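re: that chain from earlier
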Amino acid sequence: MVSRVIPVDPFDLVIFGATGDLSTGKILPGLYRRDADGQLPEAARIVGAARSPMGDEDFRTLVRAAIHAAIPEKKRDREAIERFLTRLSYVAVDATGEDGWPELAAKMRPDVVQAYYFSVGPGLFGALAERLHAHGMNAETCRIVVEKPFGHDLASARALNATLAEHFDEHQIYRIDHYLGKETVQNLMAVRFANMLFEPLWKAQYVDHIQITVAETVGVAGRGGYYDKSGAMRDMVQNHMMQLLCLIAMEPPYAFEPDAVRDEKLKVIRALDPVRPADLVRGQYRAGGGMGSYHDDVEAPDSRTESFVALKAHVSNWRWKGTPFYLRTGKRLRARTSEIAVTFKDPPHSIFGDQEGHRANLLVIRLQPNEGIKLKVTIKEPGPGGMRLIEVPLDMSFAEALGPGAQEIPDAYERLIMDVIRGNQTLFMRGDEVEAAWAWTDPIIAAWEARGDRPQPYDPGGSGPEDALMLLHRDGRRWREIRP
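^ sequence. v structure.
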């Protein structure tokens, strides 16, 4: 099976921060892949914008190197790369001053889609929006793409929303969370709402609990300055994991349309109960395996910023009342993996007695790596000798079930950028959704700051602090093993 390529309309895409890591590591190589697959029209153009003085050819040389670094040699097409590079130009722009703005405005074509990607630090979002407005680059058909972090707390998120709203309407603002562009995340909605098999069971009456895990093997070395001001709660839980929780817990929208989907996600966030201190664990990784500790990586021996968070959340509505949602994320853990595991309840009565092989049904949605969906069911063990039960997986790995073409499915950034050009906001966060997430997160952070407690140390290569295991053990449950 080969993914279907649907061309987009002609566009001018400006990437602010075009020489930065996100642009060269993800955005520009992703746009090359879309071009190589035939999705970009002939009239599409991409403009790099940054502070560094640079000519068009110098920028193309930089992008060529970025493509070579991001894409394996066997998947590169020399002719396609050269064609893509002809689409590129560069303007040196001062985000907080006036240099370069008239030149940038002169490049924009009024008869095509105009999109502006803010691949810069959040402190420049307001300044960029203001100057785009001042130089007439905020027409009704223009769009801006805003990277996370979108605010540091509720107050800063509200202030940023207000600043952007002075210069652009809400329908022009695309707050990007790349997790929503992942193929398996979108398949979660398809599994729920396109299959009668699951939706009637997707409620507290039948679901025992849900686990969401986002584990990483890397530490924070190299980005300690940013991370130590953020921590796992702000960096992962408030945005990525909140979005996953919303997609699991939301009611069926009336249609797969931007505001219909986002309205239902907002209801989930507003239905979240406050998290009790006893239901939250924070941790920091120790030194080990020839690598430094968290304190070493951030060069702050007294830091109390967490590199690990585990918590139990409850959604107080009719569908989920009483069903716990367990979330955990951390650095320097055993394996790099992201998954959602839905554990269903046991049958009310077992006609087979208490057999060891009988376990609760489990639906696992694996986001990375090896994207796929697995349903674990109980069957009879083959052979004579009575009714012996065993657990077996019904496994749909995308790479195996969908064939070689599944390997060519666009990554999250590619898909989301194409949605920006199409004007489709379904997989982007709305302003009130961001503020609601911060309204739930802020009291959690304020509570532990008021207590002054330190994150618990944990060994690298493990599953996090011991208290995170107890979070489930005291409920008679266990975390799923973190494995590649």
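Residues 34 and 450 are 49 Å apart (CA to CA).
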